[in-house]
């Protein structure tokens, strides 16, 4: 693994220099705002009207990466301010759902890991308690969203359950971990198909946990392969393996990764919105590529030396393709990545829907993947 990364050291350092330069400028305007997508090259701000939106701490996560890399106090200050803004969301309980994992992993957990702050730890443990309370004991899954979809679970939640593993480690209380394990097992059984493609949504009987159906979700059609859902599975199961050491999770991450890499080899390593979308569709999703790269790096850290090059090579090919085809290095535009798509079927009137545009979580995972690789070089 080291030999591969050493060959890419110059490229990764140059790429990081470009990222740091751009984010240094962007951050001076954004500071502690809650961006989601860009309008005319400028990131919007979901504060205060939409403070409970699921992506509201991805900018904080980017700031924590910048703080870890540069130790510039301004990044810590802005990230902590975002975290404090999110306090009101906890007490507006009705707006909370399965994505509390994303929302507090990227602010409070990253804060605690970087600074040891005790209040950040308390916030993250409270969020973990909220997430674990969404576990359907009879059904064996963490319920997605709110409203009338009581039996729904989604593949995205594999990225939320690391908060529960973290909470068990912090509290020395396995109750959080047991919920995470049960949900991961349910997801592995009912979401991941034999060929490595995955469902986005599965509907269960909330009283028995019996599989009912797999609605289309954000992909092209029932039975298709929404690329961001595939990415959540690769990274989510890899993280579950890291927390548990259980090989079934690593094997699942690898199976999904093999499906994804086979598809990406046909697309130049920039993902379409759905790997089974019509051939004439122009929708792509750079965020799915960045998330997948992070997952492949985690798999590479976990497999024998003879396998590492396969996964690291895939991650590097994705990052280079994103850099070449999707990255925005014009300092007048605040996004790092363009060509992100929130879902295949777009409602022109939808407030949150983005087609071949910028998504803050795409930027976050692009930054995270580069940081992961630079850390492996040492």
Could you name the ranges where pLDDT drops below 50 across 5 or more consecutive residues?
Answer: none
Our count of domains comes out at 1
Q: Beta-strand level of the residues, as a percent range?
A: under 5%
CATH topology: Glycosyltransferase
Q: Which CATH architecture is right? A: Alpha/alpha barrel
* Quaternary structure: single chain
Report mean pLDDT, rounded to a whole number. Answer: 97
Strand order of the largest sheet: 5-6-7
Give the CATH class: Mainly Alpha
The rounded distance between the terminal residues' Cα atoms is 12 Å
Assign a percent range to the helix content. Answer: 55-70%
**H/I helix tally:** 14
Q: Sheet with the most strands? A: 3 strands, antiparallel
Annotation, overall tally of beta strands: 7
What Rg do the Cα atoms give?
A: 19 Å
Structural class: mainly alpha
How do the helices and strands follow one another from N- to C-terminus? Answer: HHEEHHHHHEEEHHEEHHHHH
Shape: globular
Can you give a write-up of this model?
It is a single chain. By secondary structure, this protein is mainly α. It has one domain: Glycosyltransferase (Alpha/alpha barrel). It is built from 14 helices and seven strands. The protein has helices spanning 2-7, 9-30, 58-70, 73-85, 87-91, 100-115, 118-133, 162-171, 175-190, 227-244, 247-264, 286-302, 305-325, 360-377; strands at residues 38-39, 42-43, 135-136, 141-142, 152-154, 201-204, 211-213. It has a three-stranded antiparallel β-sheet with strand order 5-6-7, with no helix packed on it. A hairpin with a 4-residue loop joins strand 3 (135-136) and strand 4 (141-142). Helix 3 runs parallel beside helix 6 (100-115) and helix 4 packs antiparallel against helix 6. It starts with a helix and ends with a helix.
């Amino acid at each position: 693994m080291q030999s591969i990364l050493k060959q890419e050291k110059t490229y990764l350092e140059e790429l990081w220099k470009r990222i740091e330069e751009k984010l240094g400028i962007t951050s001076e305007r954004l500071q502690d705002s809650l961006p989601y997508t860009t309008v005319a090259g400028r990131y919007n701000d979901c504060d205060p009207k939409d403070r409970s939106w699921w992506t509201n701490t991805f900018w904080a996560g980017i700031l924590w990466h910048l703080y870890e890399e540069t130790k510039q106090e301004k990044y810590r200050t802005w990230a902590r301010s975002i975290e404090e803004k999110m306090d009101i969301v906890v007490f507006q309980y009705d707006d909370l759902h399965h994505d509390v994992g994303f929302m507090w992993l990227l602010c409070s957990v990253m804060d605690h890991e970087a600074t040891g702050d005790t209040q950040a730890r308390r916030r993250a443990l409270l969020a973990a308690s909220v997430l674990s309370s969404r576990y359907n004991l009879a059904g064996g899954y963490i319920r997605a969203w709110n409203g009338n979809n009581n039996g729904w679970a989604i593949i995205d939640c594999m990225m939320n359950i690391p908060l529960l593993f973290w909470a068990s480690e912090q509290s020395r209380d396995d109750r959080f971990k047991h919920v995470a394990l049960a949900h991961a097992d349910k997801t592995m059984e009912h979401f991941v198909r034999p060929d490595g493609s995955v469902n986005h949504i599965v509907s269960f009987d909330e009283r028995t946990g019996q599989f009912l159906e797999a609605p289309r979700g954000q992909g092209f059609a029932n039975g298709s392969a929404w690329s961001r859902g595939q990415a959540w599975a690769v990274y989510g199961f890899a993280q579950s393996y890291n927390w548990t050491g259980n090989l079934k999770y690593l094997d699942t991450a690898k199976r999904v990764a093999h499906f994804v890499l086979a598809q990406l080899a046909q697309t130049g390593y920039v993902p379409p919105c759905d790997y089974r979308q019509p051939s004439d569709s122009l929708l792509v999703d750079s965020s799915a590529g960045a998330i997948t790269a992070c997952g492949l790096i985690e798999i590479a850290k976990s497999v024998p030396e003879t396998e590492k090059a396969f996964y690291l090579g895939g991650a590097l090919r994705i990052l280079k393709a994103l850099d070449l085809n999707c990255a925005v290095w014009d300092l007048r535009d605040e996004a790092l990545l363009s060509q992100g798509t929130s879902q295949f079927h777009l409602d022109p009137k939808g407030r949150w829907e983005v087609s071949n545009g910028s998504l803050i979580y795409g930027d976050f995972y692009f930054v995270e993947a580069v940081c992961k690789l630079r850390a492996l070089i040492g």
